[in-house]
Amino acid sequence: MSKQIEVTVDPIIRPFAETYRTETLSNLDRLEQLFENSDYVQIREIAHRLKGEGGTYGFDEVSKQGQLLQKMCDDGDFAAIPGVIQHLRHFLLNVRIC
User: Fold this and answer.
1) Whole-model pTM above 0.90?
2) Per-domain residue ranges for the chain?
């Protein structure tokens, strides 16, 4: 069993943070599908959104990994994309919003 990762967010946005977490998990499935289809333009667009949105909901790790994904697409470093997606999935499945 993985250790839970605690993220503290303002109580006002806590319900929105949970919704964002759930929606982002769904986006990871889409990212995997896009990777299988070599659609790096769409991957970059989702990565850009992750980079911008993650911190809004207290998920700085999502922003950091979104920035990394975006850079990989810009640099043509596509082979490492699945690892970043798995890292994001692990984070989102194990995060506890406080």
Assistant:
1) yes
2) 10-97
